[in-house]
């Protein structure tokens, strides 16, 4: 392959990736073509993209985009996967696919410039996603007010009603 062709492929990969800094690397080499096609179709529905590219060209494209954390992972057959809601949702999706498809292997990834091993991606897939964390924070922020309302509406509310009635009788 000529240098010009390599540069064209690398620039195409760089354009596809855009400014994404969080990617996963998988090894789909042991998966048959029909299953790989079904995987790509299902990932596309969830706005997750996958590209199979030669490692040296992937390194070239990623280094030009400022992503060098994947360099140690890009060995052997590799496909780059990115997109979805966030990196946690992406890792959950790929972990589910790796369990469903024999031969699909997660090799690692990168988050905020940090290299992740396959075990790190597995741990990341078990952590709460962005929306789950937002709902947990909202619940924690609202819990003191909820406890106060619960106390006023619960048995404490009856006591406060009796205290109020007693104070009104004393005023008369």
Largest sheet: 5 strands, antiparallel
Termini separation: 100 Å
Order of helices and strands: HEHEHEHEEHHH
The fourth-level CATH homologous superfamily of the largest domain is Ribosomal protein L10, N-terminal RNA-binding domain
Strand line-up of the largest beta sheet: 2-3-1-4-5
Low-confidence stretches: none
Q: What's the CATH class label of the largest domain?
A: Alpha Beta
CATH fold field value of the largest domain: Alpha-Beta Plaits
Radius of gyration: 26 Å
Name the beta content range: 15-25%
Q: Mean of the pLDDT scores? A: 83
InterPro entries: Ribosomal_uL10, Ribosomal_uL10-like_sf, Ribosomal_uL10_bac, Ribosomal_uL10_bac_type
GO cellular component, one term: ribonucleoprotein complex
Keywords: Ribonucleoprotein, Ribosomal protein, RNA-binding, rRNA-binding
GO biological process, one term: translation
């Amino acid at each position: 392959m000529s240098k010009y062709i390599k540069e064209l492929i690398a620039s195409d990969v760089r354009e596809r990736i855009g400014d994404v800094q969080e990617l996963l690397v998988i090894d789909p080499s042991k998966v048959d073509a029909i299953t790989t096609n079904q995987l790509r179709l299902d990932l596309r529905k969830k706005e997750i993209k996958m590209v199979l590219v030669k490692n040296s060209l992937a390194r070239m494209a990623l280094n030009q985009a400022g992503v060098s954390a994947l360099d140690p992972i890009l060995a052997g057959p590799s496909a780059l996967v990115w997109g979805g809601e966030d990196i946690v949702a992406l890792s959950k999706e790929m972990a589910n696919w790796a369990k469903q498809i024999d031969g699909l292997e997660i090799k690692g990834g990168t988050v905020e410039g940090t290299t992740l091993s396959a075990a790190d991606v597995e741990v990341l897939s078990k952590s709460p996603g962005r929306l789950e964390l937002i709902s947990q924070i909202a619940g924690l922020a609202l819990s003191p007010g909820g406890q106060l309302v619960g106390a006023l509406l619960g048995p404490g509310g009856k006591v406060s009603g009796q205290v109020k009635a007693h104070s009104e009788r004393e005023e008369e």
